[in-house]
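Quick one, probably user error.
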């Protein structure tokens, strides 16, 4: 968060103290007076937005988030997401990869203690219950610290995990349950000759939003007879939406229609509590899709499976 200027950093520290003591308006005023010292300080504009939002000054917050997003074109700070949530306009269809990577690099060392220990997260266990005894070659998308891998290691002939966060991958490596781990961006996957019998995604699609591209990649990367199983947070409406906690939720109709369009012939969806958030249960869709009727060939044309 440092600006590189001691005066601006001292003012930020004082503003943080005001915010912590419940004086959000005073904190926002101080940050607004500070930023002329460092007008290109993206993190400073982000904090002004957060303080102004806490003070109920939505207009100031939107302007500050917008300036932060201009200064951070890769989106690592997630300022654009916060701006669009306040503006109540359609948000981006997926989170910036740099934002997700930074979020989990920072979160990795306390991920399991916070998510499992405090919030009762049970996504891997819910997903594991839906899976057959033999999974063949398994790819764990967004493997994180390896919770999903640990839950199904005994059923996999070969287990590979991919994640965008190097820090999360180090945590997964320490579990020694994966045959291979790789640093991959789910927003940039390309279909290759490699095929998996099972592709899993436990609580990772909440950072993707529009699932069309990813589901297309899965359909083109499964072996004949393969299985795609995943969890998403359940949306009561239609399509998908970004919530105030900056996670996407997906409707059951959206998931069903998308998987059918991708050629999956069999589908099972159950609803269960994934974890708690602010003391409230978070409902999830636990999805298992198979019977792939067609897959995209290398030329992009549909070819029937043998």
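Nope, works fine. Designed sequence:
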């Amino acid at each position: 968060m440092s600006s590189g200027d001691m005066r601006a950093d001292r003012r930020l520290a004082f503003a943080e103290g005001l915010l912590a003591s419940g004086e959000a308006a005073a904190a926002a005023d101080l940050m607004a007076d500070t930023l002329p010292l460092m007008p290109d300080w993206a993190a400073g504009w982000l904090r002004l937005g957060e303080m102004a939002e806490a003070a109920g000054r939505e207009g100031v917050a939107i302007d500050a988030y917008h300036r932060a997003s201009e200064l951070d074109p890769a989106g690592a700070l997630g300022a654009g997401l916060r701006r669009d949530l306040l503006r109540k306009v359609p948000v981006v269809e997926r989170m910036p990869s740099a934002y997700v990577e930074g979020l989990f690099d920072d979160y990795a060392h306390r991920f399991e203690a916070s998510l499992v220990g405090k919030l009762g997260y049970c996504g891997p266990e819910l997903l594991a219950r839906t899976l057959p005894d033999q999974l063949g070659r398994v790819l764990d998308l967004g493997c994180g610290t390896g919770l999903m891998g640990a839950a199904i290691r005994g059923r996999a002939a070969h287990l590979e995990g991919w994640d965008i966060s190097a820090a999360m991958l180090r945590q997964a490596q320490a579990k020694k349950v994966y045959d291979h781990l790789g640093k991959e961006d789910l927003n940039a996957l390309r279909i290759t000759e490699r095929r998996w019998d099972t592709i899993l995604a436990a609580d990772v699609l909440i950072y993707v939003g529009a699932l069309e591209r990813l589901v297309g990649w899965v359909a083109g990367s499964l072996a004949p007879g393969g299985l795609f199983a995943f969890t998403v947070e359940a949306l009561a409406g239609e399509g998908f939406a970004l919530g105030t906690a900056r996670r996407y939720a997906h409707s059951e109709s959206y998931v069903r229609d998308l998987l059918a369009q991708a050629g999956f012939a069999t589908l099972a969806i159950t609803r269960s509590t994934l974890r708690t958030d602010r003391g409230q249960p978070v409902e999830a869709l636990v999805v298992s899709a198979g019977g792939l009727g067609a897959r995209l060939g290398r030329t992009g044309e549909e070819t029937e499976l043998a």
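Residues 6-20 form the longest helix (15 residues).
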